[in-house]
Amino acid sequence: MVIWQGDFYKRSLFDQQGEMLWELVITDQQGTMIHEAKCPQSQANSDWLIRQLQQATQKNIPDLIQVFRPQSIGLLTSAAEKLGIKVVPTRRTSALKEVLKRRSTNTTIDVSTLDRPPPQGLPENLWGEQWGFISLKAGDLIQFFRDRPIPIVDMPEDLLPINLNLPSTVFIPGIVIYGGRKSMYLARWLEEQQPVSISYIPTQIGLSGGLVLESGLVDRWILATFEDPEMAQAAQKYEDRKVMSKGLHFLTVQPDDSGITYTGFWLLNDD
After folding, report:
1. Is residue 108 situated within a structural domain?
2. Does residue 97 share a domain with residue 32?
3. What's the angle, vertex CA 189, arms to CA 222 and CA 230, rounded to 5?
4. Is pLDDT at 265 greater than 80 in this prediction?
5. How many domains does the chain have?
6. Distance of CA 64 to the CA centre of its chain
7. pTM of the predicted protein model
8. Are the C-beta atoms of 185 and 196 separated by less than 8 Å?
9. Which of 31, 237, 238, 257 is the most buried (most CB within 10 A)?
10. Residues 186 and 92 both lie in one domain
């Protein structure tokens, strides 16, 4: 499968007529430039994008283009559909973001980052009965969950420990939610939200804090809060292990702590 990563955004640059410029940047998954072009804002539309995509696809046509910027999705989807190319919204465009970050070195605005809203509370009807921190060695993680009949599973190939060159002995931290009778309902909601990462956000050093779920393109959810110093220490250990695992972590939803039945599993990585 041929996958490209694309972005279409406003530059803090103007043409000779004083009109703001928009820039199209397309790379492959390794960050190799496929196509780039600029146009004045008055031409920033699907027709212009179609012409640019036609130029970009003269030698090779991708199966899909990954897009991380919400404002780019509508126009790029409209243009790509004319050429039979699927556009997939996702935060996981690390190669493209790295290219954009390098291009922003001499400017005050890093175009690879997006404004994110404050996290919102999880709907009460989704709350599980309990939750906790767990960890598994990288060498055991995938086999442990892959061999189980789990209804909802998300294991992106690029996040597998072996593809991140992680030693098999490194512990991969995770969050487990025991959902009880709401387990499947919670897992289906999470599937719709497209989990990306879960981070510990301390509110008072060593005393309290919470877990924030990043999902979709810019969505943020308060997954849990706590005021227990021991829980805060466990949360900090969870973050320390994420450093050792190159940001790799996971989320699992289970009806209970029997270890027999699993409802959902997501392999995550700090974006």
Report:
1. no
2. yes
3. 35
4. yes
5. 2
6. 17
7. 0.87
8. no
9. 238
10. no
